[in-house]
Amino acid sequence: MAVIRPAIAVAAKFTASPIIPISPSKISTVAHSDATRTRTDGTSVLTPISSNTAAELPLLDVDFCGECMPLDQSDVVDRWKHVFTLFRPHASDLGNLRQRAEEFFPVIDPILEKYDIPDDFRYVPLAESGLRPKAVSRAGAAGYWQLMPGTARELGLKVTSRIDERFNVHKATEAACRYLRKLYDQLGSWSLVAAAYNAGPSYLKNQLRRDAHRDYYRMTLPRETRYYLYRVLLYKEVLSRPNDYSSFLSPAPRTAFQPWPMAELRRAA
Fold first, then answer.
1. Structure letter (DSSP) for residue 54
2. Which residues share a beta bridge with 37?
3. Where does the chain cross the membrane (predicted)?
4. The model's pTM
5. What letter would DSSP give residue 199?
6. Which class in CATH covers the domain with range 79-249?
7. CA angle, corner 47, sides to 45 and 51, nearest 5?
8. Residue 54's pLDDT band (cuts 50, 70, 90)
9. Residue 230 in contact with residue 79, Cβ under 8 Å?
10. What is the pLDDT of residues 172-193, one digit of tens each?
């Protein structure tokens, strides 16, 4: 089958600088030394620096369809922090995303149940299309589930110049669930199903023949697929228990000496 591509690609790894706690007794010293700058006329001006530091991402127990994310592996933690770091500047849109999800989930949940697909796959369309019904990727994937034309036709959907059932939420979800069920019957692991949905079943099967294990988190995969499940799980976490991540997702204070890393984010987009 044709590869199903997501609308949003994951970018290069971003490594944040370590956060070093500063005791209250040192805050005034830091502010008065580092914040002092000299004007052109020779006089000094003091620019206050906020004593707040960015919050660390809480590492909570996370699972996908009962398969736990192995947070005892440092590379897994790095990827998990990476997707949250990229999402953080867009956290202000979480309310709108939640509203779209509240309208979307009641439509697709009964279809997932019909095909015995775990609830966690309700978050796949968020990673694929941001729940935008008319989303179309540069590769030609379309709709909530970002189905490629060839894949959609093989799954029984009409895709012509006049009719494109990938934009019909009921029919597209039925088709996606048939596809997911078929992948699970072949692979026997829901995390591998998610990887195959992104990279394509042929690629994943070939990779499984070369790998000594069947663990998504340890497999050698393309960059986009390597981060794919993390992105799905990010949406699950921020929508199902937002309060647990509120301190990390709250905007960090902007000062002259703590600018938003816009250049880095552009390179990572």
1. P
2. 45
3. none
4. 0.73
5. H
6. mainly alpha
7. 150
8. low
9. yes
10. 999 999 999 999 999 999 999 9
